[in-house]
């Protein structure tokens, strides 16, 4: 059997991993997440199913990896934004909510993943994959909490746990409201995604930065 230098083998592995994830992105833009299968993903990546399983333990594991990558893109968008620290608290709350929502609108794949069936994916992978996903997800939530504290230092110190909870709930709000916006039959009974998400997040941020406990 042929052997390859360690560096070349790692490069090849990275290329194939990226190709599989890119194929998952393409499929997600075309069909519902629940319609994606291992065989379909392998065909799109021009690989056999057995080759895909050398890199991921299931197609659900591919989708979980995609959740992390899309969340990373959303986070980078947010972390690249800055709010005037000298602005009044109310203005900073509005700016924070606006930033979260605008980043979501610019990353629809992220919103679709967190607002759809992706929430149950970790129950259909190996324990090791699920644990790694939860650990990575927690790191992303902590980064979002750090950004919130940067924008709203009123959350720091004894209020820091509130920032973490607020960060996690912000993600849930964005996903849930995005999922509702995907149903045309509800359009006449609700606000557009950006408006409803912005107003909801402002309420959460106002509660978290008032003297009483959130």
Topology:
Layout: H1 6-30, H2 38-45, H3 49-55, H4 59-79, H5 89-106, H6 108-115, H7 127-151, H8 160-181, H9 193-208
Helix pairs in contact: 1-2, 1-4, 4-5, 4-6, 4-7, 5-9, 6-8, 7-8, 8-9
Description:
The structure is a single chain. The protein has two domains: 55 residues, Orthogonal Bundle (Arc Repressor Mutant, subunit A); 150 residues, Tetracycline Repressor, domain 2, CATH 1.10.357. The chain starts with 5 loop residues before the first helix and ends in a 6-residue tail after the last helix. It has 214 residues and is an all-alpha fold. 70% of the residues lie in helices and 0% in strands. Helix 4 crosses helix 6, helix 6 crosses helix 8 and helix 8 runs antiparallel to helix 9. The protein is elongated and about 55 Å long. It is built from nine helices and no strands. The N terminus is likely disordered.
């Amino acid at each position: 059997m042929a052997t390859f230098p360690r560096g070349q083998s790692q490069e090849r592995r990275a290329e194939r991993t990226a190709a599989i994830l890119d194929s998952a992105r393409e499929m997600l833009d075309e069909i519902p997440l629940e319609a994606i299968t291992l065989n379909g993903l392998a065909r799109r990546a021009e690989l056999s199913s057995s080759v895909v399983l050398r890199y991921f333990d299931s197609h659900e594991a591919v989708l979980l990896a995609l959740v992390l990558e899309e969340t990373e893109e959303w986070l980078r968008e947010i972390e690249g934004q800055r709010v005037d620290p000298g602005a009044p608290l109310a203005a900073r709350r509005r700016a924070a909510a606006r930033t979260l929502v605008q980043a979501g609108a610019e990353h629809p794949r992220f919103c679709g993943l967190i607002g759809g069936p992706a929430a149950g994916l970790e129950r259909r992978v190996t324990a090791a994959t699920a644990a790694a996903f939860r650990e990575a997800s927690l790191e992303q939530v902590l980064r979002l909490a750090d950004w919130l504290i940067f924008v709203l230092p009123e959350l720091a110190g004894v209020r820091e746990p509130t920032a973490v909870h607020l960060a996690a709930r912000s993600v849930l709000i964005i996903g849930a409201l995005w999922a509702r916006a995907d149903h045309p039959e509800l359009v006449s009974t609700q606000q557009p995604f950006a408006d409803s998400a912005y107003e909801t997040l402002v309420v959460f941020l106002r509660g978290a930065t008032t003297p009483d406990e959130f």
